[in-house]
Amino acid sequence: MTAWMVRTGHGPAHPDSGRRGTAEGEGDAKSRGRGIAGMPGVLAGTAALMALACGVGVAHGTDGGASDGSGHGAAHGAHGAPAAGPSAQESGGGGDPSRVDGVAAAGGGSWMRAAGVFSPPGSFVPSDALTYDTRLVPAGARIEVTEFAAPSGNRVGARLRGLVPGRAYGMHVHTSPCGADPAAAGPHYQHRPAATADPVNEVWLDFRADEEGDGRSEALHGWGFREGGARSVIIHDRQGGAGERAACFTVPFGPHGRE
Question: Model-level pTM?
Answer without folding.
Answer: 0.64
